[in-house]
Amino acid sequence: MKKNDLSLRDRQKLATRRHIQDVAKALIAEKGYENTTMRALAKAAGVGVGTISLHFTDKKSLLLASFHEEIGEITLSTIASVDKELPIRDQLFHILSTIYKYYATNTKYLRKVVKEVLFVRGEWGEIFDAQIHDCIVLVAGLLELAKERGELKADTDCGAVTMILWSVYLNGIIDGFKQEEFEPEVQAKKVMGLLDVVLAGIAV
């Protein structure tokens, strides 16, 4: 359903949900995840604790839901914006540098989020696994197109290569968070240095 198809009430609910999420980001960045209570969040957002509960079952679900929505939207739009006529290396660098810019926008908050996501299990673990799988399929599709136009060897296992790319991409995020400041271009270049080793083995 498109935003324009929503009723006024639904649009108001969506606006309240996003307001709560925005306030939560700022509060967690300032006070830390552990020190951010639902009561403090409600006060900062100017709503009741019950209102927050209508949208999120608890603090962790708020954190995970917010990140899931944001990273999903950013990743899908980034992959969709890739110029598929460019060399595959340029396509991958575009994806890396664009998504890494997201992690640089609110590093203090996202450090907490990623820490939770990396080890989440249960229902949310399955939700994030499905999201990762969908992204991996899309990137593998870009590699397949590169193979079809003769840029990669005909026997390249695009699925396996994409899993390697995912691992290196994730390492770039973790390494970036270890730095005092997350620098997207620096991290993208570091990761591309590693990906160049992989690409050298499958390039024609």
Description:
The chain has 204 residues and is mainly α. α4 (59-80) crosses α6 and α4 (59-80) packs parallel to α7. It is elongated, with a radius of gyration of 19 Å. The chain folds into 2 domains: 1-56, Arc Repressor Mutant, subunit A, CATH 1.10.10.60; 58-202, Tetracycline Repressor, domain 2 (Orthogonal Bundle), CATH 1.10.357.10. It contains 9 helices and no strands.
Summarize the structure.
The chain has 204 residues and is an all-alpha fold. Helices cover 77% and strands 0% of the residues. The chain folds into two domains: 1-56, Homeodomain-like (Arc Repressor Mutant, subunit A, Orthogonal Bundle); 58-202, Tetracycline Repressor, domain 2, CATH 1.10.357.
Write the layout of secondary structure elements.
Layout: H1 8-31, H2 38-45, H3 49-55, H4 59-80, H5 88-105, H6 107-118, H7 122-148, H8 158-178, H9 184-202
